[in-house]
Design a protein that fits this description.
- The protein is of the alpha/beta class.
- Helices cover about 30% and strands about 25% of the residues.
- The chain has a 5-stranded mixed β-sheet, with helices on both faces. Strands 8-14-13-11-12 form a 5-stranded mixed β-sheet, sandwiched between helices. A two-stranded antiparallel ribbon has the order 2-3.
- A hairpin with an 8-residue loop joins strand 9 and strand 10 (about 215).
- Helix 1 (about 35-40) packs across helix 2 and helix 3 packs across helix 4 (about 105-115).
- The radius of gyration is 18 Å and the shape is globular.
- The model is unreliable at about 10 (pLDDT under 50).
Length: about 325
């Protein structure tokens, strides 16, 4: 049984009492791949894929869509929505696990694409929990006074790491990017993060070897998420001073539609709009939470100031959750 860690200490003097998300935006590649296209070579039907994971279609990156270029496009959209320019930020945190090479870091390249190559920029690799990890880091740095305004980005080209003959992964993973602008605020709009992991089960989602493809034991991950992570979600709500029934939005990593709906049911988030972006976007790992959040905002299902629980989970096995106020 996972026991969430104790709350983090209060921010150091000289920092801000809190931070908030000023804007969020997403980028999906133009190429739409339906279940028939994916399933036919694997000998499975479109209906079987949708029944199993809830996906109807997903987006695949084109030749010119790198992790860095998609990240920069999402960041530019988020900055524009916040009324800011790249020169207004001093920190860029990129959550990704699908770069083609470990060096140079992807964040530095994204900063260069945005025209701000000298800002602090680093990557976070917590796989599908990556965006929520990166958001927790940026929140802490803004509250401490180390950063004034930060870009937090989740961007992935998971299709580079998928074996197209593996039915467990080829039917699920996709590509995309989502970004959020984090700024200081007198009142916390990003509440304390609850994060951790279960390294004893790290092999359930992995890429074995430098030139391997992602492997996943989906049923075991499903059981872990729907049994162990409910307490994490409850603790994240408690640290925000909310009951789950007070949530207006519930956005988890988009791994499996049945898993998402089971989590919402077990949490008792009865009045919340649930992120179901997986249906049309697939599993985009670290990009999935900001993409699902931006879709709920675009659809008008959540509004500015609404409390939304974000939760990422995946390879590691890592998890992170925090309540945020909708920008």
């Amino acid at each position: 049984m996972i026991t969430p860690p104790p709350p983090a200490p209060a921010p150091a003097s000289g920092g801000s009492p809190g931070s908030r998300i000023a804007a969020v935006a997403g980028v999906r590649p133009e190429r739409i791949v339906d279940n028939e296209t994916i399933g036919a070579p694997l000998g499975v039907s479109a209906e079987w894929i949708e029944r199993r994971v809830g996906i109807r279609e997903r987006r695949f990156a084109g030749a010119g869509d790198s992790v860095q270029s998609m990240a920069a496009t999402a960041a530019g959209k988020a900055l524009s929505a916040a009324g800011l320019t790249p020169a207004d930020v001093d920190l860029l945190v990129l959550a990704t696990c699908s770069l083609p090479s470990p060096m140079p870091n992807g964040a530095a390249s994204v900063a260069a694409l945005l025209g701000v190559p000298r800002i602090a920029a680093f990557d976070v690799n917590a796989a599908c929990a990556g965006f929520c990890y990166a958001l927790g880091v940026a929140d802490g740095l803004v509250r401490s006074g180390t950063s004034r305004r930060a870009l937090v980005i989740g961007a992935e080209r998971m299709t580079d790491w998928v074996d197209p003959t593996d039915v467990d992964t080829a039917t699920v993973f996709a590509d995309g990017a989502g970004a959020a602008v984090v700024v200081a605020d007198e009142r916390p709009g990003i509440h304390p993060v609850v994060w951790g992991g279960d390294g004893d089960q790290a092999g359930l989602v992995a890429i074995p070897g430098r030139h391997g493809s992602v492997t996943m034991r989906g049923q075991a991950v499903y059981r872990w998420v729907t049994t162990e992570l409910v307490a994490v979600a409850e603790e994240a709500c408690a640290r925000a001073g909310l009951a789950p029934t007070e949530l207006r939005g519930f956005v988890t990593h988009q791994a499996n539609l049945r898993m998402i709906e089971r989590l919402a049911e077990r949490l008792g988030a009865d009045r919340a709009a649930v992120g179901r972006d997986i249906v049309h976007t697939g599993n985009t790992s670290a990009a999935s939470v900001p993409l699902a959040l931006s879709r709920l905002i675009d659809l008008g299902e959540i509004r500015s100031g609404d409390p939304v629980l974000l939760m990422g989970f995946g390879a590691g096995l890592s998890y992170a959750a925090q309540v945020v106020r909708c920008p």
